């Protein structure tokens, strides 16, 4: 599975996807230090490019023939600590969407802060992607349940051509661990982190300082996840802060008993390997790269979910309320409802885990499956009916939730549609010259 990453930064997403077995064939970013760091740790396939110049970058990406385009458009304009308005960086979400619909990979993956989900820019980008035939799954994940020792909540958007919306949400939920990863696990000698007096002091002390946001906690135990990492996470509390700080009710210890995390430890908290090299002489730029990075362990888990679905090894979970819907109002007996659900799962296995926005295409694809023709006539009919029952269920739920029209708005063909008119769409997008974080 060939991958191109836009806004790649230091390379956290690419590193994680590579560990999931995907082949990253190209990566692009505008920040020289990020490109140098990526090259030193991940590979030579990275390029320093101004991604605001969408029209010039698209031909290069097409030549790489990606199955998946991934990226995290700079999100500072969405952040709680930053400006409330949607500025230059947030508008790059539109540029990301326009690149996808022009290149037309089968898959795309976007990571961003959760606040981006409610933005006008994402609404516009989503409309562009939907019009181009992509089914979209939006998930808000806490990366502490995805191999990262950090309470980091992020918006993960996965899209695939021709799919029904929410097609992979259940698989992402299923991939989460039951308990969050504690900070202690990231700093364990088993991770390859060199033992030092400073590390020994931190572990024996059992408490760390985490720069509080919005009157939050300042002290946590190492047996819980670290707070969301920011570019100021490594700063020591000032004398004035120590003097004025009012202990939070959930602080695990007094402020003077908490250790301050250094860059080496914070690099592990973000999920980078112990031998990771930061290529920059500017500490602030390093912290910006670190804070903006996608934690590699989370990227690996997400990549595994996508790759397994791409290969047809998994199928979407059947929603629990589907059985209730079948039985409600005397539509079907309980025994019959179990048979329908069993047939639905079997049909999805024939489809390689696919769901389709267009029911007619879903049935046509099922009919074209070689093994399907070998089934008994009655069995084939049962599988078709199971798919149609599920479509009826989704349509009914859509109406009950106040939706208008039909979910199956348009047929989606297997062939790639005509090229998207990028020039016309870009007329409403204003992008600038730099993506460098403030």
From TrEMBL:
Active site per UniProt: 75
One Pfam family named in its UniProt record: DNA_methylase
E.C. designation(s): 2.1.1.37
Main enzyme class: transferase
Catalytic activity: a 2'-deoxycytidine in DNA + S-adenosyl-L-methionine = a 5-methyl-2'-deoxycytidine in DNA + S-adenosyl-L-homocysteine + H(+)
A GO molecular function held by the record: DNA (cytosine-5-)-methyltransferase activity
Top-rank taxon: Bacteria
Keywords from the UniProt entry: Methyltransferase, Restriction system, S-adenosyl-L-methionine, Transferase
Gene Ontology biological process: DNA restriction-modification system; methylation; negative regulation of gene expression via chromosomal CpG island methylation
Family: Belongs to the class I-like SAM-binding methyltransferase superfamily. C5-methyltransferase family.
Protein name (Swiss-Prot/TrEMBL): Cytosine-specific methyltransferase
Organism: Rhizobium rhizoryzae
Organismal lineage: Bacteria, Pseudomonadati, Pseudomonadota, Alphaproteobacteria, Hyphomicrobiales
């Amino acid at each position: 599975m060939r991958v191109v990453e836009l806004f790649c930064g230091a390379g956290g997403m690419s590193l994680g996807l590579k560990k999931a077995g995907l082949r990253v064939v190209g990566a692009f970013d505008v920040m020289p230090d990020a490109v140098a760091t990526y090259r030193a740790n991940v590979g030579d396939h990275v390029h320093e490019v101004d991604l605001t110049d969408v029209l010039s970058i698209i031909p290069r990406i097409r030549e790489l023939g990606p199955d998946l385009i991934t990226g995290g458009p700079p999100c500072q304009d969405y952040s709680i600590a930053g400006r409330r308005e949607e500025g230059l960086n947030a508008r790059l979400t539109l540029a990301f969407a326009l690149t996808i619909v022009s290149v037309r990979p089968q898959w795309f993956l976007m990571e961003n802060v959760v606040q981006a989900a409610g933005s006008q820019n994402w609404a516009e980008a989503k409309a562009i992607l939907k019009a181009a035939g992509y089914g979209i799954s939006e998930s808000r994940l806490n990366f502490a349940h995805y191999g990262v020792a950090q309470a980091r909540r992020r918006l993960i958007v996965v899209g695939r051509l021709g799919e029904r919306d929410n097609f992979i949400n259940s698989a992402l939920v299923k991939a989460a661990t039951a308990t969050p990863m504690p900070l202690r696990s990231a700093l364990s000698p088993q991770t390859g982190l060199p033992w030092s007096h400073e590390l020994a002091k931190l572990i024996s002390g059992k408490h760390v300082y985490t720069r509080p946001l919005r009157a939050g906690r300042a002290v946590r135990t190492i047996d819980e996840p670290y707070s969301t990492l920011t570019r100021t996470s490594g700063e020591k509390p000032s004398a004035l802060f120590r003097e004025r700080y009012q202990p939070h009710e959930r602080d695990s210890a007094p402020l003077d008993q908490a250790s301050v995390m250094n860059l080496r430890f914070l690099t592990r908290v973000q999920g980078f390997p112990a031998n990771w090299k930061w290529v920059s002489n500017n500490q602030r730029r390093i912290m910006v790269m670190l804070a903006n990075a996608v934690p590699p362990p989370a990227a690996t888990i997400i990549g595994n979910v996508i790759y397994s679905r791409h290969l047809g090894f998994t199928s979407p979970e059947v929603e629990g309320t589907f059985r209730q819907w079948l039985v409600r109002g005397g539509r079907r007996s309980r025994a019959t409802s179990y048979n329908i659900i069993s047939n639905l799962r079997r049909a999805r296995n024939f489809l390689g885990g696919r769901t389709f926005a267009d029911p007619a295409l879903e049935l046509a694809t099922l009919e074209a499956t070689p093994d399907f023709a070998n089934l008994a006539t009655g069995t084939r009919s049962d599988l078709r009916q199971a798919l149609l029952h599920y479509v009826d269920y989704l349509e009914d739920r859509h109406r009950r939730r106040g939706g208008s029209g039909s979910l199956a708005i348009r047929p989606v063909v297997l062939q790639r549609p005509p090229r998207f008119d990028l020039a016309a769409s870009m007329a409403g997008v204003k992008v600038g010259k730099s993506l460098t974080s403030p």
